[in-house]
């Protein structure tokens, strides 16, 4: 098997033990050595041995399709698909489907309809990814409930949950395999190839993690279990598993520019509805993290009041922001953390008495601003499902088209996990209900992204990582964090990171310092992709630095084209994006604690056009530890033949608007 460009070659065969196996090469270099495939099914022998090939076929696809929104407007899907139909000695049938692209491949299993094989209980999946060596890896542990960790940089052999950084403080830490990692898991080989293993189209199945075997280079699929039922997944034939994906690039940027994950998902099912609208927003959020106000009324400093909501609405209207998020508006927050019985706490329709939901929505309408609903479920999905109809009916009543969902804490019922099949299906149920109700979803504490935004483009963004909130109460995200995230978590899909903090010294509120420069915070709007970006800081902090705030006001959230200008994972990242329906380019660069002096070509700009570069950079004496808010704004004319030299301070960055003249 090979892709149409003949860069990626995969071989499917039976090994010496009769086990179904595969291997992969890229431009003649082995990427995946002999790796076995198969399943342990309940009360059955291993499925994947002594398989007889019944038939196979192949199909070439060469087409382009358009995203409703995204990093790139037009996506090329150029692949060759192969389908193999097998039967083992017991007469059990199993199909295997491959799709090969020039930058990697995906493969999935299919349990076809067959007598006596209707209900399938999967106790284990054994898909191996045998690497050619003990590669450098960027990873977070295979926590069944949380992805909110700092990334570790070690060899594959160093994947060990006992050395994790930045453990999530609120969610349960459910790590049952010490030497296992979540996906996307990104690696760099000794020859310089970049490889990332993930999955696409996770539907009615358990999330895949990767277990490190004793040889320290073989990774084996390990599905998140249901402790209640004692299985990894239960499905009905016919059934196709999610795609297991291997992305391959000669540079880190090749991974980020790959569209393999999206191409392995089904086409858009929602059409082009007007209510799906990429946007920037502000909201009542950061002030709670700064302990200026609270989510719950009983604490005596409630943030979600009618008066405070109007303040944010006024700010949004003045500066051209589409939405205002209001957290803590509904009753129940007094019992959401630390209470074992969190079911029935929230009802998603009853506001606190100091929040007049009718008046807030009337006022927002008068200002041309949308209210973004907030549904914190406290990880009690059964309560949420029981109230989906009333919750979304309330949103329809007020014409709300965006909701931020949350699932903080261990899942109720005990024994199910955020990343298991039961919750995967819950997240999908909510997404479909939202689509029926003309609602976009910004999911926090979610199941990982696997390209579903192509099929349901109302799935706008997910948290699913250690976000900006940790700069207030979690010890901070070190500068290297966002030099790793684009090539790990962001390969899966858009991120609701909540960027744009302008006040780095938080001593007025708590003993904290945000460990980046202000220019780094501006760059986040380009480096961290999302179609819904929050200006997360307090309005008064933006009012103090309106010249720098102009970049946040200007930067789009929907793009025609994106390119990685330069990057070294863990050191620095520079990304440029062309606005959709416009001619201006935007560039964002971030550096780790060492800073970076960088010279790069501007050959991504349109040839023959002169641009005015509006540069928001670190001041010469800026440093993320002791002079973080020092910045300089400069302008100069450039074109596609120009080179630009930028000095990003330690923990610093740069944000540039290239305005076409």
Plain-language structure description:
This protein has 661 residues and is α+β, with helices and mostly antiparallel strands. Helix content is 16%, strand content 33%. A hairpin with a 5-residue loop joins strand 14 and strand 15. Helix 4 runs parallel beside helix 5.
* Shape, per Cα inertia axes: globular
Radius of gyration in whole Å, from Cα?
A: 25 Å
User: Which class best fits the helix and strand makeup?
Assistant: alpha+beta
Q: What percentage of amino acids are in beta strands?
A: 25-35%
The whole-number mean of residue pLDDT values reads 96
**DSSP helix count?**
13
Query: What is the CATH H-level superfamily of the largest domain?
Result: Aldolase class I
Compute the separation of the termini in Å: 49 Å
Number of domains: 2
CATH class of the largest domain: Alpha Beta
Question: Which fold name is given in CATH as the topology of the largest domain?
Answer: TIM Barrel
Protein traits:
Beta-galactosidase, Chain A, domain 5, alpha+beta, 7-stranded antiparallel β-sheet, 10-stranded antiparallel β-sheet, 661 residues, TIM Barrel, 35 strands, globular, 2 domains
Quick structural overview:
This protein is of the alpha+beta class and 661 residues long.
